[in-house]
Amino acid sequence: MPAARHDSHGLSVHDLPAFLRYGGIRFSAQPSAQQLRNFAEALNDNGHLSYTVNVEELQAAPYVLVATAENGEFVCGCTIKSSDGELAEIGFMLVRKACRRQGLAEYMTALRIAHAWKHGICLLYAKVRDHNTGSMRNLSKAGFQSAGDFLCQQEHRSTISWFYLALRPMSASICRRLLASRITELVPVIP
Questions:
Q1: Would you say residue 129 lies in a domain?
Q2: CB-based contacts of 137: which residues, under 8 Å, 6+ apart?
């Protein structure tokens, strides 16, 4: 059997079983209904979204990862919100405040990248509100590039920073062309 291929984060595509362990925390790539409810509740209680996330929205995501402590308490969660074959949006990610600064966000981002790579995605993108510097740092550390800042009409004219990561060899101009269909309704922010 040939050696497993590794992505740029050192994770083999074979390192993604449905259940993973990380320092006493259980990661489930097939979360239960209760885990999804807890994730949705944590996202809504966080106060950073301009709308309410429901369990159905999480269930519809192509990839959801939820982590719980040994006692079943919600620790963190993340998604790949949408995918059209070549292009996928990494979406919600939340680490409970008491569990931050332990590398969980970086680990979950690496798992989402590995999942997308395994499923043939060519380009990942992320939209981050301009005040969410922690997410921007996390994406940059994972290799994402800035695609620019845009005003979003649906988000009460807030500034949204877009990031992208090519998972297959392609030029920056091709990456930006793939993103163009997603960004067309936005107004670029000119410094």
A1: yes
A2: none
